[in-house]
Design brief:
By secondary structure, this protein is an alpha/beta fold. The chain is about 35% helix and about 25% strand. It has three domains: about 110 residues, 3-Layer(aba) Sandwich (D-Maltodextrin-Binding Protein, domain 2); about 80 residues, 3-Layer(aba) Sandwich (D-Maltodextrin-Binding Protein, domain 2), CATH 3.40.190; about 80 residues, Porphobilinogen deaminase, C-terminal domain (Double Stranded RNA Binding Domain, 2-Layer Sandwich), CATH 3.30.160.
């Protein structure tokens, strides 16, 4: 029996169940709360970053309490603990961001737009310069409840999570990557395991397109500092067996935003990310 570790949020469980269906009937689900799920009164940069969503799962994996763990790739730090690699990237869901309005469909623009990342905040500032943008924490259901209570006039959430929860009907509009570049890894699941174990079954989970896009996007972010909270973004697409990578670099003062793109060979995915990151960083520094 393969024990699959997951956060205990509804979305995380849906994601783990996707992996379990692909692996077959000999799986059981083990859920746990993470520090990131429990600390909701502060933004992630104030409490230790995205690693708070995986710390407890990493410990369970290292101690043998579970055999594999399932994460949203965008929540996974750039570096994994020794002996606990990312072993598979299943096929990607919709990578776009989505605008969600209250159930009555009325956008009260006197209320702030709620979003969970600096990446969304700076891009929303370009799209809606007249709007107030404020952080919102909690799982999808918690954020929707805050929206319905009137704490926010609208939310920006990942389309992938809404799709997986069957909440497509709550999406008022999708933001194209030209309007709002997605987070690196958005829409991709990451399966983590112990090095050298369960290699045959995890190989079946791995989608080549998602895998190569993940390497390119994470190569971009890692080159810019990885664990920092700068609002960088990266999104790769497979085009005629090449990778087309778009990136966003924002200076620390958030006054200069630089976008760019590169196309390269799939086998050079991580290097493509590094090259684009250095190009955009150099362009931004030349503008100061």
């Amino acid at each position: 029996m393969i024990r699959i570790g997951s956060r205990d949020s509804r979305l995380a469980i849906r994601q783990a169940e996707e992996v379990m269906r692909a692996l077959g009937p000999d799986c059981t689900l083990v859920t746990m709360k993470t520090t990131g799920d429990m600390v909701l009164d502060r933004t992630l940069d104030q409490v230790g970053g995205k690693g708070l969503f995986v710390r407890e799962l990493d410990r369970a994996l290292a101690e043998g309490a579970v055999d594999l763990t399932v994460h949203s790739l965008k929540d996974v730090p750039m570096e994994q603990p020794d002996g606990l690699p990312l072993v598979a990237f299943p096929a990607r869901e919709d990578a776009r961001d989505a605008l969600v309005l209250p159930e009555n469909g009325i956008w009260d623009k006197s209320r702030p737009i709620g979003c969970s990342s600096a990446r969304r905040r700076v891009q929303l500032g370009e799209l809606f310069p007249e709007m107030d943008v404020q952080p919102v924490r909690g799982n999808v259901q918690t954020r929707l409840a805050k929206l319905e209570r009137g704490e926010y006039g609208a939310l920006v959430l990942a389309a992938a999570g809404l799709h997986r929860l069957g909440l497509q009907n709550r999406i008022s509009r999708y933001f194209s990557p030209d309007e709002m570049l997605p987070a690196a890894g958005q829409g991709i699941l990451a399966v983590q395991g112990r090095a050298g174990e369960l290699t045959e079954c995890t190989r079946l989970l791995d989608d080549r397109d998602a895998h190569d896009c993940a390497l390119a996007e994470r190569g971009f972010i890692k080159t810019l500092g990885g664990g920092c909270f700068a609002p960088a973004a990266a999104y790769a697409e497979v085009r005629q067996d090449c990778l087309h990578l778009r990136g966003l670099y924002v200076t620390a003062d958030e006054k200069t935003l630089v976008r760019g793109a590169l196309t390269g060979a799939r086998q050079d995915a991580a290097a493509l990310g590094r090259t684009l990151a250095l190009q955009l960083k150099g362009q931004a520094e030349g503008m100061l």
